[in-house]
Amino acid sequence: MDATVRFYHGVLGARLVATIGTEGFRHYFFDLGAQCTVAFFEYRDHPIERFAKPAGVPDPRAIQFDHLSLNLPDEHALESLRARLKEHDCEVTDVVDHQVMRSIYFTDPNGIALEASWWVTDATGRPSDYGDRDLFGDRDPVPAVRELAEAGRLASTPATRLVQDPTDIPDPA
């Protein structure tokens, strides 16, 4: 958790806004923007098996999560973050041009793959236009996206259950 605070607060500038601590665990929260936080959880004195994977590369150990993308307000913020990462000796990619956004990729001290993006064509804060081929470029979208495009709503949503034990994780297939 110490390295997490040093990275998220010290390198990324995500202000530490709350901490919860008990004899058994720590739970720390970082401000990512208006009403948006990210939280990290650490069990005290519990050995963990570390693993990390690059963003966008399949790995059988990471079925739920590939990477977290952070939204930046403009190209200057993207270039500034890239420079700040390099100043703190953090490896970071060159800027990747995705047409509608430009991104950089890097990893946090926990092995979590991160992306920071500046939207060239801002998709946030406005209604979704599913016919916009620049923003919705998947030519074979999942059924939920087809429902949204055709009916403007989802025909169904999945029910979820709390996982009490790792063996409780349902097979999504």
Describe this structure in words.
The longest helix has 13 residues, at 75-87. A hairpin with a 2-residue loop joins strand 2 and strand 3. The chain is an alpha+beta fold and 173 residues long. It is globular and about 50 Å long. A 4-stranded mixed sheet has the order 4-7-6-5. The chain has a domain at 1-44. The chain has helices at residues 2-11, 75-87, 143-151; strands spanning 16-21, 25-33, 36-43, 68-72, 96-97, 101-107, 113-119. Helix content is 18%, strand content 25%.
Shape: globular
How much of the sequence is in beta strands? 25-35%
Largest beta-sheet details: 4 strands, mixed
* Relative helix content: 10-25%
Secondary-structure element order, as H and E? HEEEEHEEEH
Question: Helical region count?
Answer: 3
Which secondary-structure class do the elements indicate? alpha+beta
Euclidean distance between termini CA atoms: 34 Å
Strand order, sheet with most strands: 4-7-6-5
Q: Give the number of DSSP strands.
A: 7
Mean pLDDT: 84
Q: Keyphrases for this structure?
A:
18% helix; 173 residues; alpha+beta; 7 strands
Present the secondary structure layout.
Layout: H1 2-11, E1 16-21, E2 25-33, E3 36-43, E4 68-72, H2 75-87, E5 96-97, E6 101-107, E7 113-119, H3 143-151
Parallel strand pairs: 4-7
Antiparallel strand pairs: 1-2, 2-3, 5-6, 6-7
Brief summary:
This protein has 173 residues and is an alpha+beta fold. The protein contains three helices and seven strands; from the N terminus they run H-E-E-E-E-H-E-E-E-H.
